């Protein structure tokens, strides 16, 4: 009897209460809760960002030719479009192939995000994602008008380069060109390359001819 009682007491001492197991696991940080059956503990999934009431969508990989008017007509089949915007280059006005669209109904925006994500359009897979209301920038729709023509910087630069210059302005321009040419020659010589640079044409202006008028 004494030996049996000692064995029973040893077995009881080896058993650990569930409360002590829970405290040990929380201290170790191995898991967030104990499973009902035997097995390793599992960690709780982290809560995702709240997208309740989100009406603004990000649209990426917009193909060439699918612009504001086309987007307005295409997405209006899902519901009423409140606003839309395609990111454009300020100088050239060309599309940056991503934009934003806002619907009046949050349910419509959620349906569009589910249906149009990875939708193949003109060999481009559209990337459509809901933007939580707290992540929408307050200046996203401020001062935007895609109908306004951007400044034609190419034409402005052409006029600047092709303008008529005085003799003094022309000499300054030629001097800058010759200075860059001398620096280039020095770099070529320092690199040990045997190369004869061609002379720049037009560095010296010919003297104007005098015109004689008959008496």
Automatic annotation (TrEMBL):
Top-rank taxon: Eukaryota
GO MF annotations, alphabetized: RNA binding
Domain RRM residue range list: 55-133
Keyword Nucleus set for record: yes
One Pfam family here: RRM_1
Cellular component per GO, a single term: nucleolus
The protein's name: RRM domain-containing protein
Organism: Erythroxylum novogranatense
């Amino acid at each position: 009897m004494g030996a049996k009682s000692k064995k029973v007491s040893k077995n009881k001492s080896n058993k650990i209460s569930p409360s002590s197991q829970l405290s040990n696991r929380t201290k170790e940080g191995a898991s967030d809760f104990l499973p009902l059956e035997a097995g390793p503990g599992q960690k709780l999934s982290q809560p995702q960002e709240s997208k309740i009431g989100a009406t603004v969508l990000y649209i990426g990989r917009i193909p060439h030719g699918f612009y504001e008017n086309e987007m307005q007509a295409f997405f209006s089949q899902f519901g009423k479009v409140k606003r839309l915007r395609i990111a454009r280059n300020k100088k050239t006005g060309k599309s940056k192939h991503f934009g934003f669209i806002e619907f009046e109904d949050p349910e419509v925006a959620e349906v569009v995000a589910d249906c149009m994500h990875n939708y193949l359009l003109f060999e481009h897979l559209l990337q459509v994602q809901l933007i939580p209301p707290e992540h929408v920038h307050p200046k996203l729709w401020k001062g935007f008008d895609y109908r306004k023509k951007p400044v034609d910087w190419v034409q402005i630069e052409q006029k600047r380069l092709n303008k008529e210059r005085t003799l003094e302005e022309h000499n300054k321009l030629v001097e800058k060109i010759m200075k860059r040419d001398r620096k280039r020659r020095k770099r070529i010589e320092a690199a040990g390359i045997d190369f004869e640079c061609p002379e720049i044409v037009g560095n010296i202006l010919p003297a104007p001819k005098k015109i004689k008028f008959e008496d």
